[in-house]
C-alpha cells in the first residue's frame, strides 16, 4: 500500500515540476508564433533578425536589411518577437566601464623628487 502511494507521489511531483511547466512554455511559444503579423520584428532560432513582410499558414517572409533581402522561414523557427539581446546589453557594459574608469584615473601617481 505504501509503495503505491509513493509511486503516485513521485508521478505527481514529476508532473508539477517537469511536465506542466514545459507544456506552458510550448503553449506560450505557439501563441506568440500565431500572433505574428506584418510589420513585426522577429529573431529566428539561428539569430537572423528581420521584419515580417508576409504571413502564410506555417511560413512567413521576412526582410532582413535595407537592401530588401527577403527570406522565407517556417514559423517554428521563430525564437522571439523583437530583437533578442544578450544578458548584458552594450549600454550596461559601457556604463560599467565608465564607472570603473574614474577609479583607475584617480589613483595617486607617485612622483619622484629630484
Key descriptive features of the protein:
114 residues, alpha+beta, 5-stranded antiparallel beta sheet, elongated
General description of the model:
The structure is a single chain. By secondary structure, the chain is an alpha+beta fold. It is 43% helix and 23% strand. The protein contains 2 helices and 5 strands; from the N terminus they run αβββββα. The chain has a 5-stranded antiparallel beta sheet with strand order 4-3-2-1-5, with helices on one face. A hairpin with a 4-residue loop joins β1 and β2. It starts with a helix and ends in a 9-residue tail after the last helix. The mean pLDDT is 81.
In short, what is this structure?
This protein has 114 residues and is an alpha+beta fold. 43% of the residues lie in helices and 23% in strands.
